[in-house]
Amino acid sequence: MRLHEYQAKDVFADAGVPTPPSALATTVDEAVEHAEEIGYPVAVKAQVHVGGRGKAGGIKLVENAEEAREAADAILGMDLKGYHVDKVLVEGAVDFKNELYVGITMDRGEGKPVAMVSTQGGVNIEEVAAENPEAIAREHIDPAFGMHPYQARKAVYDAGVPKAVARDVASVLTTLYDLWENNDASDAEINPLMITEDDEVIAADAVLNVDDDALFRHPDLAEMEDEAAEDALEAKANEYGFDYVRLDGNVGIIGNGAGLVMTTLDLVDYYGGKPANFLDIGGGAKAERVVNALDMVFSDDNVDAVVFNIFGGITRGDEVAKGINEALGQFDEIPKPVVVRLAGTNAEEGREILNDELVTVEETLEGAVQRTVEYAEDEQ
Ligand code: GDP
Ligand code: MN
């Protein structure tokens, strides 16, 4: 479970991490009121379960009431990477000279938590991680002992954090580790951890992801789960009884069986495409489920092409094919190209039944995925 920034900030502040004054708003008027109270400049920040809000236009710095009104009006109700924004955090802006990154996550390879510190925090940390990984200092932690103060100091020193703030950053890092552990978090992250002109250290953003399987131990956190902010598509998937995960690419993927869908995802990636979703329609892929599955992927504006990967077992290939025809027959115009790979029981019959005016039929999975990735590129 991912907490919103404002929720994570509350948890961080309670644990002793310095955070700017802030207040949550769901209307423009409310946002302006908060801004007036906090005093300008303030940052108006979309509260959605997705990173990279700054780059996507979900964060605006404003200097007066008029600007605050404009910003809140623009951000509230906007669609941010597929998420509807219904709340903004109004927060005292920090006058900073440097943005750090600090985070705790589980290093599965090592089987240990790892603390990370970088002086190159801010909106480009993903690029830093990919292109310049040595700019992020790492320190593994033995969970039996927790983070020793010297480990925090070492990570901070290795990262090259300026001396004047080293002690405070180390203290934030140990606090972050403790709250990571106490909350059964999978990730706890502050990016940016800002250094002000006066060498104060302050968390301008907060990420806290909590292990779903441990939520029963944290009723306070479980209560924060925000049904309204749940992705509209994920809600739809729940209704239909599908296993669905929304991703940020443009190749829609539908399959029956989790393994089959995972394989398709990997292949899309292998052939240079980007999966838009994981969608497992389960064993009994009857016509109605196919209709619902198509409704799901076509409801995602990011999808440029769709690949079906179906293995006929309990549900025979001919039945799936009928479902696909029926589903696509409901559209006056098929919104995006659809490619189908059918294998297993009655696959051949199925392929014959498929209406090739509506779909592209491919014999092999590799062929189907390559074709879909091409279509998706053409549509862009
Ligand atoms: P994210 O893009 O979703 O991770 O959102 P962040 O909260 O990290 O904000 C992105 C960027 O906006 C930060 O790296 C800062 O450069 C800028 N920003 C956010 N809050 C403030 C603030 O209070 N003051 C200033 N000056 N910049 C801010
Ligand atoms: Mn951030």
TrEMBL record:
Key word ATP-binding present: yes
GO biological process: one example: tricarboxylic acid cycle
Catalytic reactions of this protein: GTP + succinate + CoA = succinyl-CoA + GDP + phosphate; succinate + ATP + CoA = succinyl-CoA + ADP + phosphate
Cellular component, GO annotation: succinate-CoA ligase complex
Purpose: Succinyl-CoA synthetase functions in the citric acid cycle (TCA), coupling the hydrolysis of succinyl-CoA to the synthesis of either ATP or GTP and thus represents the only step of substrate-level phosphorylation in the TCA. The beta subunit provides nucleotide specificity of the enzyme and binds the substrate succinate, while the binding sites for coenzyme A and phosphate are found in the alpha subunit.
Family in the record: Belongs to the succinate/malate CoA ligase beta subunit family.
Protein name: Succinate--CoA ligase [ADP-forming] subunit beta
Organism name: Halarchaeum nitratireducens
